Amino acid sequence: MHSSGKNLLLINPWIYDFTAFDLWSQPLGLLYIASFLRAHGFVVSYIDCLRSENTSAEVKSKKYGIGNYRREIVETPQIVNDIPRKFARYGISESEFVGKLKKIPAPDAILITSVMTYWYPGPSQIVKIVREIYPDIPIVLGGIYASLLPEHAKNVVKPDYIIEGPGEWQVLRLLEEILNHPVDTDTEFKRLDDYPYPAFDLVPNLRYICIMTSRGCPFNCSFCAQKHIAAKFSQRNPEKVVEEIVYHIKKYKLRDFAFYDDALFINKEQHIKVILRKLIEAKLSIRLHTPNGLFTRDIDEELATLMFNTNFKTIRLSYETSNEDRRKDMNNKISNEGMKIAVNNLVKAGYSASDLEAYVIMGLPEQNLDEILESIIFVNNLGVQVRLASFSPIPKTREFERAVRSGVIPENIDPLLTNKTIFPLKSPDLDYETFRKVRIFSHMLNEAAKKNMAPFAENTIGKSLRRILRDSI
Ligand code: B12
Ligand code: SF4
Questions:
Q1: What's residue 104's pLDDT?
Q2: Cα Rg for the chain, rounded, in angstroms?
Q3: Can you give the pLDDT at residue 1?
Q4: What is the pLDDT of residue 4?
Q5: What is the pTM of this model?
C-alpha cells in the first residue's frame, strides 16, 4: 500500500556537443527511477529533450532504430571555441520544451538526469528554465555527471539536491523528507530483479529497448569510472532477463534490444549463455546489439554460436590498442591472441569478419601516432571494422589522476575540455588535421575489409605500404 498524489516531473536534458548520435541511447537510469517511484505511488510526467512526437519527422532513423537527433547550432562556449567545428544543441527546440513544461500537471518536485560530464550545459540550461517557471519547486539532479562531479554540479548547475550513485532508494528517501510525504516501503524491492522494468512507456517515438542484465563491474580499469557510478557488481537471474525481453516485445512490438551492461560476459556459463539459450527456446524475432565493448577473451566457440543463433547484429569488441604493455597497465583483459581467437570463433559460428567491429582507442596520454595506426591495421588484418573511440580523462579515474599529476590537465579542469572530440588533440602527435586523417584512414580500411581486403597484411606489399603511410600522415 502506498500513499499517492504527489506529482513528479522527470527530465532528460539536451545534449550540447560538437557531435551526438542516438546509438541506442536512452537515459536508462532515469527510466528505472520513473518506474520505481510510480511503484511507490508517485505520479510521473516525463520530458525527453532529445526526442519528441512532434519533431519525429526531423529525426532520421537509421537501421535498428538508431539515428540522428534534431540539431540546432548554438554559440560555442568560449573555452572550446578554438575547435574548428560547430557546437550544437541536440534535441527539441527550447520553445517546445517550455510548451511541454507548461502543459504538465504542476510538479511537487523536478528530477533531472545527467549523462556525460562534459554535457553539463544541458542540465544547467534546464535548471535555469524550470526555476523561472517553478521557482519554489525542489530540483534534484542525479546521474553520471552528478555522481562524478558533485561539487562542480553544485556550483554550476545549482540544483537544490544532488544524488550520487544509484538513485532509486536515495531519491525515494529524499522525496519522503522534502515533500513531507512518508511512503510505505514495506515492499519487495530488495534485489535488481525485484525492480520494476524501466518506464519505456514514457519515451516518445520508442524505436528500441535498452536492457541491463547486471549492474556494475568487478574490474577497475584505469580509464573507467563505473566504480563511482554503479553499485557493487551484481547480476540478474537469467530467467528474469528473458521474461523482461518477452514483456517488452509483447508490449511495444519492437525487435531491437541493446545491452547496457558494463560487463555482459562475466560468469558466462551461469549468465549470458543461459540467457541466450532461453532466448533461442522462446523463438523470438529479435535483433541484439552491444554498443558497449565486449570482453573478447570470453567469446569461446559455444558463446559465439549462441550469439549467432540469437541474432546479435551489432557486435563491438573491446580491443583498444595493439600495445600490450599499455593494455596491461590499463586493464589486462585483452590480448592480441585473444582477439584473434574471438574473431575466429565468431567467424566459425557464421559471421563474416566484416560484420564485427572493434574499438580502437586514440588519444591516450603518451600514445603516439604509430601505436594508433598499428592498432587500426591489426584490426583490419583480422577483417574486422575499426571503431575509433577517443580517450578523454574521466574524473575519479586513475587515468584522470595520472593526467593531473603529470601536469597534462589541472585538477579542476572545465569538463568541456574533456569532451571526447577535443581531448585527443592534446596528445603530442595529434593535431586536428592528423586526427581527421586517422579517421579517414580507418574509414578506408573499413571499406577494404568489406571487400575482404587487408592492404597492410604481413606481406611485401603490406610492409611497403606501412612505410609509405608513416611518411605521408
Ligand atoms: C550504456 C553506456 C553507453 C551507451 C549509451 C549511453 C547513453 N545513455 O547515452 C553508449 C554505448 C552509446 C555509450 C557511449 C559512450 N560512452 Co558510455 N556508458 C554507458 C554505461 C556503460 C552505462 C550507463 C547507463 O545507462 N547505466 C545504467 C543506469 C541504470 O545507470 P545510471 O545511468 O548511472 O543511473 C543510475 C544513477 O546514475 C542514478 N540516476 C540517474 N539519473 C538520475 C536522476 C535523478 C534525479 C536521480 C536522483 C538519480 C539518477 O540512478 C540510476 C539508477 O540507479 C556507462 C558506465 C556506467 N556504469 O555508468 C558508460 C559511460 C557513461 N560512458 C562513458 C563514455 C566515456 C562514453 C563514450 C564517450 C566512449 C567513447 N570514447 O566513445 C561514448 C560516447 C557517448 C556519446 N554519445 O557521446 C563514460 C562517461 C564519461 C564522462 N566523462 O562522463 C562512462 C561512465 C563509462 C566510463 N568509461 O567510465 N555509453
Ligand atoms: S572498462 Fe569495462 S571492464 Fe573495465 S572497469 Fe570499466 S566496465 Fe569494467
A1: 94
A2: 23
A3: 44
A4: 57
A5: 0.95
Give the distance (Å) from ligand 2 centre to CA of residue 257: 21
**Pocket of ligand 1 contains residue 330 by CB under 6 Å:** no
pLDDT band (50, 70, 90) for residue 231 = confident
Asked if residue 171 has its Cβ within 6 Å of ligand 1, the reply is yes
**How far does residue 273's CA lie from ligand 2's centre (Å)?**
20
Q: Which atom of ligand 2 sits closest to the CA of residue 223?
A: 1
Percent of the chain with pLDDT strictly greater than 90? 73
How is 344-368 classified by DSSP, letter by letter? HHHHHHT--GGGEEEEEEE--TT--
Report the alpha-carbon distance of residue 130 to residue 139 in Å, rounded.
9
Which residue's CA is minimally distant from atom 64 of ligand 1?
A: 116
Handedness of CA 186, 190, 193, 196 (dihedral sign): positive
Q: Pick the residue whose CA is nearest to atom 82 on ligand 1.
A: 116
CATH among 3.30.70.2750, 3.20.20.70, 3.90.180.10, 3.30.465.10 for 209-472:
3.20.20.70
CA of 138 to the centre of ligand 2 (A): 35
Point out the ligand 1 atom lying closest to the alpha carbon of residue 230: 57
Residue whose cell numbers read 595506426: 373
Q: Encode pLDDT of 367-406 as tens digits.
A: 888 899 999 999 999 999 999 998 888 999 988 998 898 8
pLDDT, greater one: 5 or 390: 390
229 CA from centroid of ligand 1 (Å)? 9
Is there a contact between 254 and 284 (Cβ–Cβ < 8 Å)? no
Average pLDDT (185-192) is: 73
Residue 227 alpha carbon, nearest atom of ligand 2: 5
CA of 472 to the centre of ligand 1 (A): 37
Which residues neighbour 335 within 8 Å (Cβ) at sequence distance 6 or greater?
297, 324, 327
CATH number assigned to the domain with residue range 7-178, chosen from the 4 options 3.30.450.20, 3.40.50.280, 3.40.50.2000, 3.20.20.70: 3.40.50.280
* Residues forming a β-bridge with 358: 317, 386
Question: Domain ranges in the chain?
Answer: 7-178, 209-472
* Protein residue with least CA distance to atom 60, ligand 1: 116
Helix (H) or strand (E) holding 126: helix 121-133
